[in-house]
Amino acid sequence: MVPTSRRDFLRQTGTCAAHLGLAAAVLPPGLARRWTAPAVGRIVAAEPFGRLEAVADGVWALISTPLGGDFTTVANGGIVAGSSGVLVIEGLMQPAGATWLAEQARTLTGRWPTHAVLTHYHADHVNGLAGYSAGGPAPKVLATTATRDQARDKNLPAEPARLTRLADVVVLDPAAATQVDLGGRTVRIEPLTGHTASDVVVTLADPAVLFAGDLIWNGMFPNYVDAAPIQLAQTVRSLRAGPDRLVIPGHGPVAKAADVDRYLAVLQAVEQAARQAHARGQPAAEAGAAFALPASLGEWTLFTKQFMPTAFQAWYRELAR
Ligand SMILES: [Zn+2]
Predict the structure, then answer these.
(1) Domain 6-223+242-253 falls in which CATH fold?
(2) Selection from 279, 277, 262 nearest residue 311 by Cα
């Protein structure tokens, strides 16, 4: 069951979710199946809306699979367990999705989540937040001020329960990394920008895992609606230059270094085409509509005709500065 109507979904105009909502309606089943494919970790739970993969000792990735039309979670997320605390990543799309993830955490670790991190304000990463308070004690919610305020002001529908949880947010320093000690395991939350004006990533040193939020997508063309494309590419390159690690993208299956390289090549192909179109004075919408990624970059799910023009518009905003 999908608790939100398609119309409600499409009202999330500033979010990844709007594109995904359209996608589920238009994607042929074959393509949806292909995209939901291979698991990197061992699958410990599977639902129509997503699967939970064990990617390291005490670390699980939620890989959402919304293309079948179930929007319970939509964005990817995760669980990181220490001996005294359990941190979950993302508030997800629906409270039912967050409650499900918290129940999985309790089953796998014996503990309800003690911390929840929001990587950025988009509805599919935040709107289910209240679900973490159903069935267990409310975890401490960690987010930047910008994420908290934009999630409160822009994301529809404005459920009172989500807003209450946002009011309790523990504000992350926007200029320095925050360390969270979970007992025998320290999680690092690093503020960055590019996908939105305020993104964070969650990293583990050992095992080396990066929860990238929507700064990194895999096999699925990224949403540029709030993107600053030059900064985005720079941020992704800096993440790629770090230690070799398993990457949990914001959308799409678990990624390795080669997948991040392919994603960087996608960003670069869009940049090149957008710069050329801008230089010859072609309107962004027209140039975006006419552009297709080279086949050499493999398959990248495009959700709507609007998707590529949005990327070009983001580039034109950048180039007009
Ligand atoms: Zn996003």
Answers:
(1) Metallo-beta-lactamase; Chain A (3.60.15)
(2) 277
Tokens 């007992």, residue?
183
214 near 250, Cβ under 8 Å?
yes
The residues, ordered by sequence, that sit 6+ positions from 247 with a Cβ below 8 Å of its Cβ are 209, 210, 212, 216, 218, 239, 254, 255, 256, 259, 260
Among 31, 18, 99, 111, residue whose Cα is nearest residue 65 = 31
Closest CA relative to residue 215, chosen from 203, 232, 229, 230: 232
246 Cα to the center of ligand 1, angstroms: 20
pTM of the prediction? 0.90
Q: Ligand 1 center to residue 184 CA distance, Å?
A: 31
The domains of the chain are located at 6-223+242-253
Residue at 80: amino acid letter? V
For Cα atoms 163, 165, 169, give the angle at the middle one, nearest 5 degrees: 110
Expressed in angstroms and rounded, the spacing between residue 110 Cα and the centre of ligand 1 is 31
Beta bridge partners of 178: 189
Q: Which residues contact 315 (CB under 8 A, 6 or more apart)?
A: 224, 229, 270, 271, 274, 275, 278, 284
Cα 237 to ligand 1 centroid, rounded to whole Å: 18
The rounded Å distance from CA 280 to ligand 1 centre is: 30
* Burial bucket for residue 127 (CB in 10 Å: 0-12, 13-18, 19+): buried
- Identify the bridge partners of residue 63 per DSSP, sorted by sequence position: 51
129: DSSP letter: G
pLDDT averages per 10-residue partition of the chain, 321 residues: 41 47 48 57 94 97 92 97 98 97 98 98 96 95 97 88 90 96 98 98 96 96 96 98 94 95 97 98 97 93 86 97 87
End-to-end CA distance of the chain: 45
Q: Residues with Cβ within 5 Å of ion ligand 1?
A: 16, 122, 214
CA dist 76 to 62, 211, 250, 252, Å?
5, 9, 5, 8
